[in-house]
């Protein structure tokens, strides 16, 4: 079997084990057994439990970022529709990959460096991406002086708040039965884009 295929199978097994058992409780024996290989082979490919966990974080962070970016590639979408598509892609990916989201959102954040640094990198890229969407929205909405007059610090702050809210909402959605990606995206769009005031007046996502 080619090395990349074998390594992918090991990472799949590791993500499932870390996501369900936690970093400390997960054992290399469990991961090797789930991957259908010997423990020495896991060490040969990935050196240590720490390096294996780091590789899992990097792979799953890259997959999540790619899913969000792919969600807004459709040309001609209005800024609010781009944000809606990106949020829907984010929540769909985290729902479809609960073990990966557990690794990123729970395990990596609670076990110190170097794991937390990998998640910080992912979060910074998400914030940068959302910041770009918001700046595009401001440029595309000249009729709204409040939006057009947003400064860089305001835009970055709003992007930070959106990403943080999305992370918290994904954790809630994955633990709450029957919450769809569209429902989670609608909740955040109604709060962040429509605004509580307009929401009280009956404006809701999806339109």
Automatic annotation (TrEMBL):
Domain annotation HTH tetR-type: ranges: 4-64
Superkingdom as given in the UniProt entry: Bacteria
A Pfam cross-reference name: TetR_C_46
Location of the DNA-binding region in this protein: 27-46
The entry's keywords: DNA-binding, Transcription, Transcription regulation
Any one Gene Ontology BP term: negative regulation of DNA-templated transcription
GO MF, one annotated term: DNA-binding transcription factor activity
Entries under PANTHER family matching the protein: HTH-TYPE TRANSCRIPTIONAL REGULATOR RUTR, POSSIBLE TRANSCRIPTIONAL REGULATORY PROTEIN (PROBABLY TETR-FAMILY)
Protein name, as recorded: TetR family transcriptional regulator
Organism: Streptomyces niveus
